[in-house]
UniProtKB/TrEMBL annotation:
Protein name: Arsenate reductase ArsC
Protein's organism: Candidatus Clostridium helianthi
SMART domains xrefs: LMWPc
Pfam families (UniProt xref): LMWPc
UniProt keyword annotations, A-Z: Arsenical resistance, Oxidoreductase
A GO molecular-function annotation: arsenate reductase (thioredoxin) activity
Alphabetical list of InterPro entries matching this protein: Ptyr_pPase, Ptyr_pPase_sf
Positions of the Phosphotyrosine protein phosphatase I domain: 3-128
Entry's EC annotation: 1.20.4.4
Length: 137
């Protein structure tokens, strides 16, 4: 069975959504990607949508929406995107914090930098899962 990964932050509108999109795009062969938050926004951050569309040709408006922690299945790995406030609590066999700053309201450069960092981390996470570096049993 494929490993399930949840990318979480408070609003599930920007970083966690980008991570869900890039996880699906690059490594859906290794893990299933979900994102969620403790609160939802009526729509995903439109700057994030635009940047992900420009960089990867993925339309998050079509494939994703803001979700609550209770909207996603039980997962094996919980990735906190980095919260200045209290990060949501979600049980998982492996939990880590990527400590990414929220680019919301900042320049396109910040969004691109965040997207590229998430891309690297998603690929690295997949490698660690494949190499059994993350203990899930």
């Amino acid at each position: 069975m494929k490993t399930k990964v949840a990318f979480i932050c408070v609003h599930n509108s920007c970083r966690s959504q980008m991570a869900e999109a890039l996880g699906k795009f690059y490594r859906s062969d290794v893990f299933e990607s979900y994102s969620a938050g403790t609160e939802t926004k009526p729509q995903i951050n439109q700057d994030a949508v635009r940047i992900i569309k420009d960089l990867y040709n993925i339309d998050m408006n079509e494939t994703q929406k803001s979700k609550l922690l209770s909207d996603i299945p039980e997962v094996d790995i919980v990735i906190k995107m980095g919260c200045n406030v209290v990060c949501p609590i979600l049980p998982g066999k492996h939990i880590e914090d990527w400590g990414l700053d929220d680019p919301s309201g900042k320049s396109d450069e910040e969004f691109i930098k965040t997207a590229k960092t998430i891309e690297e981390k998603v690929k690295e996470l997949a490698r660690r899962i494949e190499n059994k570096e993350i203990k899930l049993d």
